Amino acid sequence: MSAPQPLLSSDDRDKVAALQWYAKSVMEGLNVGQHRSPHKGVSVEFKEHRPYVRGDEVRSIDWKLFGKTDRLYIRQFEEETNLRATLLVDQSGSMKYAGARRPGPSKHQFAIRLAASLAYLFTAQHDAVGLATFDTKLRAYLPARSRPSHLHELMVQLATAECGGETKLAPVVETLAGKISRRGVVFLISDGFDDASSLLRSLQRIRQAPNEIVFFQVWHPDELDFPFSTRTQFRSLENTSHERLVDPHAFRVQYQRNLQRFRSELEEGCKQSRISLVSCTTADSHVAVLAHFLQQRGAKS
After folding, report:
1. Over the chain, what is the mean pLDDT?
2. Which residues fall within 8 angstroms of residue 112, CB to CB, at 6 or more apart?
3. Predicted local distance difference test score (pLDDT) of residue 266
4. What global pTM score does this model have?
5. What is the DSSP letter of 93?
6. Is 195 helix (H, G, I), strand (E, B) or coil?
7. What is the C-alpha separation between 236 and 62, in angstroms, rounded?
8. Most buried residue among 55, 201, 220, 236 by CB atoms closer than 10 A?
9. Rg of the chain over CA atoms, in angstroms?
10. Distance (Å) of CA 196 to CA 159, 199, 205, 215
11. What CA–CA distances, in Å, run from 142 to 90, 130, 173?
């Protein structure tokens, strides 16, 4: 089996490396790096060394190793992390949509590249990152880890993920709420095509842990401006037996009304639950979307 194509170009990685995520609240973990921990004297199992970076505590330096190598290394432990990030990536059928007007990435391709950028960002900060992919149920789950080899596993999982069938977001998020046992930040990358009230209730469960939640809602431009002008055969990407011949002129007004109602319910629900809702389209740069969000988040801190 040939190796999957890299999800991030060298230019993408350089741009992501210039970004920074700062924890807004006290996180669980040890007092290392830039994220402060409420715990002291935690006993954990030694895992590996990593190079010292500016901001690490001097007391964490392995001075014996320094004497042998003349280089500064930090003793890193299995449970040591500045922050735990979990990426929830939708691979349901609706995410396959890539547009009817011009060639471009599908919503799923955009989602996995955005997830790869987040994974690269947190791993570069020596933070732990985990991944869950799903459609009607959980398809793959990698618990949060911070070691470089884990990043490779995560990238392979993203690169080989394939879209499945129907969407059942709320039950899957409920399942994942039980797996995210330590507070951190959870990223949902999805088009959000499910019952809005059910999805919001499931996200509130994760939010109460408490976790910070960022919902990157991925759209294709076609879904927002409905560009169709001639009679068009629409077929469900989640259930191919469902199809309908539509006169766009007669359908457009009702479609846009339903779309606005759906978006407004999600926006209001996320606002009430203090969930960051970031709307983006496949026409955007995934790195630019992430950079813009981090800039706005930093301005609100």
Report:
1. 82
2. 7, 89, 158, 159, 161
3. 96
4. 0.78
5. G
6. coil
7. 58
8. 220
9. 21
10. 29, 5, 15, 13
11. 15, 5, 15
Enumerate the domain spans of the chain: 10-18+81-300, 46-77
Write the burial class of residue 102 (CB in 10 Å: 0-12 exposed, 13-18 middle, 19+ buried).
exposed
Q: Is the pLDDT of residue 193 over 70?
A: yes
Report which secondary-structure segment, H or E, holds 185.
strand 185-190
Instruction: Find the DSSP H helices in the chain.
Output: 10-17, 63-69, 107-124, 148-160, 169-179, 196-207, 221-225, 248-272, 286-300
The CA distance from 150 to 147, in Å, is 5
Distance of CA 154 to CAs 44, 146, 147, 245, 267, Å? 24, 11, 11, 41, 30
**SS3 at position 273:** coil
pLDDT band at 298 (very low <50, low <70, confident <90, very high): confident
pLDDT digit string (tens) for 5-40? 689 999 999 999 999 898 665 444 443 445 544 443
Looking at the domain that runs over 10-18+81-300, which CATH code has it been given? 3.40.50.410
Q: Which residue carries 């309908």 as its tokens?
A: 244
**Residue 136 and residue 164 in contact, taking contact as beta carbons nearer than 8 Å:** yes
The one-letter amino acid at 4: P
Q: 243 forms bridges with which residues in the sheet?
A: 235
Sequence-separated contacts (24+) of 104-108 with Cβ below 8 Å? 104/282, 104/283, 105/282, 106/163, 106/220, 106/282, 107/191, 107/218, 107/219, 107/220, 107/282, 108/161, 108/163
